[in-house]
Amino acid sequence: MFLERICIATDGSDLAVRAAEMAVQLARSGAGRVVAVSVAQPHFRIPDSGEAAPDAQAAQAEFERARRAAHTHADTVGRIAQLSGVSCDPAIPLASSPGPEIIRVAEEHGCDLIVMGAHGPNDANRLFTGSVAQYVLANSPIPVLLLRDPREATRPDFTEDGMA
């Protein structure tokens, strides 16, 4: 399979940066072009019963915060690509659910592969938790390459008990 364009999904985590570095190396050996997708995902607290909803100014501030963060993440991938002589197109969709947007962007850009980290920036706020990675794996018509944190990997059990 010849790779012409690789979609790199990023949330800015260390693992996402490692995935971007690996994807850029793949691109250097064939594709020469990557798409950096970082979903601007605003976070709103759902008000308790009787509480007022956030005002428009607070909502706009959260949208802007999410966009700035997503641009920063995509720019990081762009710098990694540039240093390796690989062309990078940023994509910053705004959505509450990253999985469908990652697939949509990859399809719209004609990508041959999606590369992403399999967990997010921290335990309290994981962007690419199993649910997003699982969503992309289960629903993408494009092949997906996931990079996992080796500290989270479990060793295979090849004993007779483990193979049963």
TrEMBL record:
Domain UspA: residue ranges: 4-148
Pfam family, one: Usp
SUPFAM superfamilies: Adenine nucleotide alpha hydrolases-like (SSF52402)
Domain of life per record: Bacteria
PANTHER family recorded: STRESS RESPONSE PROTEIN NHAX, UNIVERSAL STRESS PROTEIN HP_0031
Family according to the record: Belongs to the universal stress protein A family.
Protein's name according to its UniProt entry: Nucleotide-binding universal stress protein, UspA family
Lineage: Bacteria, Pseudomonadati, Pseudomonadota, Betaproteobacteria, Burkholderiales
